[in-house]
């Protein structure tokens, strides 16, 4: 699995938490702890998928454009990472006379395909909202945090128009 899935889920959960506010790629990157270029790449997938909207220019950024109660982690996995569970290389060689060497890749492909389907079925049971709920259960209430100060030394997040 690649990190784009985790970045996408983190970004959507953050935007769901901010609900009626935009966040720039720099603000999201600071929260995710990655470079803003990686955020822009992932947010491009999410925008094309209809999960976020963008506003360019001063006061611009990203805002959630979906219902976080209905967006499943499986949807986001399929958008960002489907097929990435299987390694790029597998041992063995179909041209070898050994039954193990000549069949290992086919068998392992089957295992990885089955595992990915099971993982997607598990992710189907979880939504962006359920991730946010789990996060809030782990720590203090979010109620005391002022949304316009959620990132230290970052400009206030402009309100949605």
UniProtKB/TrEMBL annotation:
Highest taxon of the lineage: Bacteria
Cross-referenced InterPro entries: TR_Rrf2-type_CS (IPR030489), Tscrpt_reg_Rrf2 (IPR000944), WH-like_DNA-bd_sf (IPR036388), WH_DNA-bd_sf (IPR036390)
Gene3D superfamilies: Winged helix-like DNA-binding domain superfamily/Winged helix DNA-binding domain
The organism of origin for this protein: Paenibacillus eucommiae
Pfam families: Rrf2
The protein's name: Rrf2 family protein
């Amino acid at each position: 699995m690649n990190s784009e899935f985790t970045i996408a889920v983190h970004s959507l959960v953050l935007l769901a938490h901010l609900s009626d506010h935009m966040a720039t790629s720099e603000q999201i990157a600071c929260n995710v702890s990655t470079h803003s270029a990686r955020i822009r790449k992932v947010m491009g997938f999410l925008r094309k998928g209809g999960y976020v909207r963008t506003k360019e220019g001063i006061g611009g950024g990203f805002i959630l454009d979906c219902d976080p109660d209905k967006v499943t982690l499986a949807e986001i996995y399929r958008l960002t990472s489907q097929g990435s569970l299987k390694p790029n290389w597998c041992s063995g060689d179909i041209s070898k006379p050994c039954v193990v060497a000549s069949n290992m890749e086919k068998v392992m492909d089957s295992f990885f395909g089955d595992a990915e389907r099971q993982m997607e079925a598990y992710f189907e049971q979880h939504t962006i909202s359920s991730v946010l709920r789990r996060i809030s259960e782990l720590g203090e209430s979010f109620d005391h945090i002022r949304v316009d100060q959620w990132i230290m030394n970052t400009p206030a997040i402009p309100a949605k128009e």
